[in-house]
Specification:
Elements (H helix, E strand, L loop, with lengths): L1 E10 L5 E10 L5 E4 L11 H14 L5 E2 L11
Parallel strand pairs: 1-4
Antiparallel strand pairs: 1-2, 2-3
Length: 78
């Protein structure tokens, strides 16, 4: 199973938009297995770990945004 960060768009209670960066886990065939409920926080044991996390988050902004309610989850079949 692989994972990466993805930008996820959600609707707020007042019908606005809210964006968060989430960890997304994939099956071997690339289908989405699960997404963390809460957006990621940027923390680490060293400043270098924080820098690496920030780089991965910036990379995720070049991928398509996932829209809550439209995401298809597939049970793991690896």
């Amino acid at each position: 199973m692989s994972w990466n960060y993805r930008l996820v768009k959600e609707k707020t209670d007042d019908d606005g938009d809210w964006f968060g960066v989430h960890e997304v886990y994939y099956n071997k065939d690339g289908s989405i297995h699960l997404i963390n409920d809460e957006p990621v926080s940027i923390c680490g044991e060293t400043p270098n770990e924080i820098m690496e996390t920030c780089k991965k988050i910036i990379e995720c902004l070049s991928r398509a945004t996932l829209v809550d309610g439209e995401i298809v989850f597939v049970d793991g079949h690896d």
